[in-house]
């Protein structure tokens, strides 16, 4: 299979065979519980693939080999290995059959975890908005394929590839697409009528379509043109299924809104009948029955004395009230089902401190579709565990059930009513929507609604929080119910409080964990469906604001440490946020910078003001400002290209950075990145409204005043064309670069030499090293050498330029 030296594969077929064999061995080890392949074996394989580039001449073969490199590089960087450093993909050697001076193919700039974070944020924007403006294309799309192991990035890649293929084939497939769209429209209208009667169908089909999407993202790397065409057709089907899912959700929202209006109208009629301002006999039969049920609810809850009613109303109410009596706590409540998802997901275990504080040693108290573990010391929940079935949801009437204690619990577990002092309001750990699903508890929907409300209208289910935090909590729980792993029909929620040390009954934060199973289409045959899990934390503060949900993300492991709960290891490992590193203010602002390229809005104006204050007002330390500037530089350099308004926004912020900040020693690499981005913006000339900003920024970065130092390049083990290309890139930054010189002594070197007696030359050498890195030659060191003449910088480099 390999040549005599056994250091490379002879052709791309041998390479692919070895790649598939290695993938199978990796899968066999995982199935047997043996873990991942040794890193040394994978790095050896990567080196052999890279060397195989010397015998691959066709672009198609080189593309396949490069994707194999990307795949195993991504495997090495998988979070399961605990790696969080910079990403650097191997590249192929140049083909020996080509001209010896040809530039090696497949060169890739190194990217760090910042690229992954940016791609993940862009993928979430696509997931939530489905706006084509977030799709990738060209070089950005090819670069993103190495992160396709992330499900949300894989979704973005799949959609981007489909869109790219659709654009390329649009002319010759116009009639076919038009027919397909017509059929899709007819199907969507037909399905809308069906979903009005049965929501389960939409959920099931959306789940299947999401699985297809995952399969598409997983397989698309090695698809040929014919297979890509079929993948595009599947993508169209997926988009239709997404339409159906949205119709189902809109139908549920419409039913909920209709029920709210109906509740208000029926309540008003009941008030009029109670006050004898409206005769019961004057109402239609169905309306009269509903009014009697509402009156029966009020009587059962002690809010209505039947003696005040008209005799005919009291007589009609008596049998209805008898049926309405009773408590949900008289039923045989099963509570939380650990097998609900199809895999065992037990309640979290308790550490020693939590066990000591727990009610009855941590015994679960069952309710309808959920259970509580109580903290007797705090008189509050330790955790609520909830089963939720999206496909079996019900819309039920409001009941007005008052907040009561659970009659099964001792009085000493009842919380202190004074915990709501100071303007605090109640937030439900478990709200009725979470448990309004499945077979009705009674034939009468009013009685079913009352029993469900009895399960959640409990003192111990009410967390005392600030009104702002309550609003955020309500919005987050609704978002998670609808958006978490949308292909999953069944979801389990864990919720609870976090208390600060002391005796306060007011929680410092509320948390929520959502868990479901990956769609089986994504899972190899014979394997269990893995968990999908994500966690969120809401600070209980008066100034809590609703952020994008992922900005409220927390790790499951962190929640466990803060609460004394030990969650199942599998969901800790499946946590989408397990790589979260305590995000700083700079991280959060940098993550929002992409919105500068959106259409103008009030939110964008506010963001501009916030970013300008962070970069100019001294509110953030320099290290945090650098995170924002690096993100802005990435946006400016592209891809994707900025709109005219987006470019002006980014340039406005960069041009506002104080000039002295660019000369900070710890910003020299950042300065080089921005210098390179500005040069790219100048070619071609920017639009008039951006030109002044570009000139101002260029002046602050020293681009309009060429350095007095001359740069002489000595090179070895490189093609002359590649060195000239590097020289042109740094010359574009203002450096004076005479013709290069091939010198054998430069082999293995990577340095800029300068005269140590000149402070100006030393500063220029450090800037030149950073500019070389930004131009594609990383790792260059500034080296003082007394034999170098003043105002001369010598670049000694040996080996390929990346």
From TrEMBL:
Organism superkingdom: Bacteria
Keyword line: Endonuclease, Hydrolase, Membrane, Nuclease, Transmembrane, Transmembrane helix
Database matches in SUPFAM superfamilies: His-Me finger endonucleases
Entries under InterPro entries matching the protein: DNA/RNA_non-sp_Endonuclease_sf, Endo_G_ENPP1-like_dom, ENPP1-3/EXOG-like_nuc-like, His-Me_finger_sf
Annotated GO MF terms: endonuclease activity; hydrolase activity; metal ion binding; nucleic acid binding
Membrane-spanning residues: 177-197
Residue ranges occupied by any ENPP1-3/EXOG-like endonuclease/phosphodiesterase domain in the UniProt entry: 367-574
Domain DNA/RNA non-specific endonuclease/pyrophosphatase/phosphodiesterase: 366-574
Protein name per the record: DNA/RNA non-specific endonuclease
Phylogenetic classification of the source organism: Bacteria, Pseudomonadati, Pseudomonadota, Alphaproteobacteria, Rhodobacterales
